[in-house]
Amino acid sequence: FGFLEPPLVSRGGGLLSSTGLAQLLCSPGNSLVDPAKRFLFQDMTWPLSSYLIETSHNTYLEGNQLSSRSSVLRYVEVLRAGCRSVEVDVWDGACGEPVVKHGYAVTTEVLFEDVIAAIADHAFVASDYPVII
Prior knowledge:
By secondary structure, the chain is of the alpha+beta class. Helix content is 20%, strand content 6%. The protein is built from 3 helices and 3 strands; from the N terminus they run H-H-E-E-E-H. The protein has helices at residues 18-25, 73-80, 112-122, and strands at residues 90-92, 98-100, 110-111. Strand 1 and strand 2 (98-100) form a beta hairpin. It is elongated and about 75 Å long.
């Protein structure tokens, strides 16, 4: 570590200080990203199947898929975290209105209209890229 000077190395020399270690770990030479591709944010010219897409399964559920509570807030949370694919399981509600729930389970249900409104309001907060429903 002869190219580093205090406080990046210990006064006795030969050992990295905590500041030196932090600088070394965060330096451009230690990057996981290929420097030639660093400024290429997204190449969106490939087919959809070529991309890793952050998805959510049973998005509406707050817990297990057999007996947990359904919530519109789960859509808000996952979309604001950058998720680009959400699941909406639509069923006929008791009053003829569409509802979102996990079928044939004892989970609660939420109105389809509320889910779609939440998606519309929060889909593009974290990302400009499309949402797959």
